[in-house]
Amino acid sequence: MLALLVTVLPRAEILLLVGGSAGLLAAVSLLTRAMVRPADAGPLPRVLAHWLAMACVAISATLMREYRMALAVVFGTSVALLSIVPGALCFSGSHGRVPRRWSGVWLFAPVVAAMTFAAGLGGRLTWWEATALLLQGLIVMLSAKGDAAGDDLPTALRDPPIRWSIGRGAAIAAILCLLLVGAWAAVRGGAALALRDGRVSSTAIATGFLSAVLALPVIRSGTLLALSRRGWAAVNVCVLLVMLNLCVLLPAVVFLRLGQAWSRGEEVAALDYPLANWRIDALLLVVLSMWLVPVALGRLRPDWLTGTALVVLYGGYVLLTILPSGLG
Description:
- Helix content is about 75%, strand content about 0%.
- It is mostly helical.
- It has a two-stranded antiparallel ribbon with strand order 1-2.
- Helix 4 runs parallel beside helix 9.
- It is globular.
- About 5% of the residues have low confidence.
């Protein structure tokens, strides 16, 4: 029915894009409430709630063979998570000291970003690059686990754990269904809009709109942490989300694309991506990940100047991607 509306109504694709995005925002908000205590500094449930939305959008785009949109979501959200999200949080409260367990993970961010940049120099992603990123993600996970001894979050920084029940599980299942429908509608509407209106590309829609929609709930959920003088915990969520995007979601998109080609008997050995846009995204990720190093080492405390610079940098990135719509 929704697909039929796109072909019948003159601007149904805009309704799908906006409606799907609204569904994503609602689903992430509900999922966060169901899985996370508002002031709990423990990152994993919060990371999972936000990352499921990003993964649903990227995988939906891949299944629809909108590969440029899928990659633009992966990279666009990653850039937003390291720029406008921590930038906005700099105005909300104190950053605080980063615990050793997580500061070690932050130090891996430039390495992962550099690997992503090197992998995309040729404008193509193969199973080899995807496997290398997966292995890098495994190393990061083992590093975080190895640094956990004696340095986990104090009890004072944790709320009582959420009690799980059949009702809560059913509610989460319903929210996940809303998340899937919202992701499909947003991607379908964005792709249809790009097809109908040649002035805007699918890459620009994914970078300038969908990525911002997916990043907005991270700012909202991180504000309480920043106001309680634990801004590091909110930024930590951003770093972990970027790691999942580059080391799990990006390889998943590549392998899914190769699997689709194999199932149709096509001889496709790589996933193509516009070279210019790749270099903008990947190079900016390298630059943005570098500011995490002095913060992780305790030599830099982000303030309003840092926040202003990050927000301005993100604005320039969006303009670079959207204005020359030919990048898509």
